[in-house]
Amino acid sequence: MPIIFDKINNVFHIKAKETSYIIKIFKNKYLAHIYWGKNIDYVNLPDEVVTGGRAFGATPDANDKTYTFDAMAMEYPVYGNSDFRAPAFQIELEDGSRICNLVYKSHSIYNGKPKLEGLPATYVENDNEAQTLEIELYDELVNLKVILYYTAYEDYNVITRSVKVINEGTKKIKLLRALSMSVTFDNADFDLLHLWGSWARERMVERVPVIHGLQVIESARGESSHQHNPFIALLSKDATEKSGDVYGFSLVYSGNFASIVEVDQFDTIRVSMGINPFEFTWVLNPNESFQTPEVVMVYSSNGIGDMSRTYHRLYRKRLCRGAYRDKRRPILVNNWEATYFNFNEEKLLSIAKEAADLGIELFVLDDGWFGKRDDDTTSLGDWFVDKRKLPNGLDGLAKKINEMGLKFGLWFEPEMISPESELFKKHPDWCFQVRGRSITQCRNQYVLDISREEVRNEILRMMKEILKTTPIEYIKWDMNRPLTEVWSFDLPPERQKEVFHRYVLGLYKMMDELITEFPHILFEGCSGGGGRFDPGILYFMPQIWTSDDSDAIERLKIQYGTSIVYPAITMGAHVSAVPNHQVGRITPMETRGHVAMSGCFGYELDLNKLSEDEKRIIKEQIAQYKKIWHISQEGDMYRLISPFEKNAASWMFVTTDKKEAFVVYVNILSEPLPPLKRLKLDGLDPNKKYNIEGTDKVYYGSELMNLGLEIPSIFGDFKSFLWVLKEC
Ligand code: DGJ
Fold first, then answer.
1. Tens of pLDDT along 399-455?
2. How many whole angstroms from 666 Cα to the centroid of ligand 1?
3. Residue nearest to atom 11 of ligand 1 (CA)
4. How open is the CA angle 80-81-85, to the nearest 5 degrees?
5. Ligand 1: which residue has its CA nearest to atom 2?
6. Up-side HSE of residue 683: CA atoms within 13 Å toward CB?
7. How far is CA 11 from its chain centroid?
8. How far is CA 462 from CA 468, 524, 537, in A?
9. 533 ligand 1 Cβ < 6 A
10. Residue 55 confidence (pLDDT) above 70
11. Catalytic positions, written as ranges
12. Closest alpha carbon to 571 in 588, 595, 591, 554
């Protein structure tokens, strides 16, 4: 049984494969954190483990001076009665007081995992896959119930946490802060790993020492953001890709979040994570409840790579859903970088024709097909076809594309409205705005208040009309700006700080309705590229456009950084034209293919402008991807060389039976008389013999992993290799 309650010690022991997570009910009242890390056995746990033996601070109990919350590892800490660190939870009562006293009341342990109301979360297909512990904390004064949920995925080696708050009292309670989890480390010998970035440069890996005081990684943009990802990890100082202690925290949420790391006076670290308390409050009337998003926690004693593979396995199979979860994704061509807004039916069909000849399987029509959208100044919200460009309608175009043997896919940006649009003329009050103030524009557009049901319904109505009349098998859901002037017409003043979260709940409702009604459609998330690459979106859409930077060399860092948490198959990755449209770089077609094949593979360039040689290479790439897709989609990823550290990047994928693998190596700048290079592989079976496809070379796994594979000499910048290995 992964979760045990030890009645003698009043201790919960949550076990997941190689992990132990231990909580104690201290003095029969308070929930204190004891341990999280490599699996352990214990005999008994003295109170000092909880109090740390320091009792000179403010003591909450006048008759017992042996403990202070300020030195304790509280499992779900509150502020205001002797713990002065950043709390996980805070309420405000009608009298203006903000004190809360959460005391253990009861618990239950059961097989399976409950769904989170209105929120995406990891799931089970069978109740035996996981076990859940619910611990009920209670504030007797106001009858407030706080349930802490812990689910142990035994085989995946993962623990998830979330919190539900229920007002069982007779008065209104305002939540000022309701984070999803908090956990304490008993020493500060850690580094903090996080993923920062910007538009077109998402998820750059940064590793810094933890420092005394607070380090906060957050978003206040209304989306998880290009700038910061809802993920952090604590790494032991000696942790590397292949060794050391690593603690990962990944929030299943797509809006404002905060990951808070606090090192205190005793060199202990408190990590908490959840909805960003900045710009958040939530009014709970009697009998109402509030559900926090889920945090997925991974401990590994085998380094960053092992943590990533754990996230990949879980997210591929127990976060992503739908018909395409386990299927090969169609190889697509997207017309955005080929035409931008400047296209007509003839042009699109000529690209589709070439695509069909090359073996591409899906044609995606991007921005510009609706309203009067000749550039980005108009028409968002007018989701009806522009007959000037497509006189036969979407239906006519899609049918012709289908006749060529291709599936048809379409772009939408459902959350947005152009001030220059029919929809805005009809409903000028549907976008976020504050009365009497100007509205901030970003890419000439405003944000629809999709926390409102009528707004959601009208957008969905327009979308569904198209989806019911056109043979659409793929949708790209874009979102091209952050939220500003966040204020909602429907809500009273005391609820205005709920709007950011209500927006996310509205978004999830819209996505849920569409994927439920159109289960055959493959959805790809996008937010000006990778501005909302988070587990919340992956629950609805199994792939996300990773970045608007499609340059193969830029993509090395972007895809490497993204792979710290997210599986390769979730990363939309396209071969685009050279000189590259974002950075002007010229890279070989082979390299662009190798980098794109390391993700969810596709093309995004004008296929009519290809040379015969380029067409030949593309045909080869498509044939190769069809042979190897299962290795990266279903297998494990091993990162070999970091482009953040070296003049090269390399990674490989290995099937779970270790019979097949493929390795990608990209050299960035070429060097004269370069050092002799051997690439040490990983994840193979040391005792199996592998043939390098296309050669007669055979190596033992142990040889490839320790002596390494020789890298041929390289002349010219941005050259790459893709080796396929098969057991022989
Ligand atoms: C941003 C996306 O990331 C691009 O791929 C493209 O769809 C444009 N928006 C269209 O406006």
1. 999 999 999 999 999 999 999 999 999 999 999 999 999 999 999 999 999 999 999
2. 27
3. 367
4. 60
5. 528
6. 25
7. 33
8. 10, 19, 22
9. no
10. no
11. 478, 548
12. 595
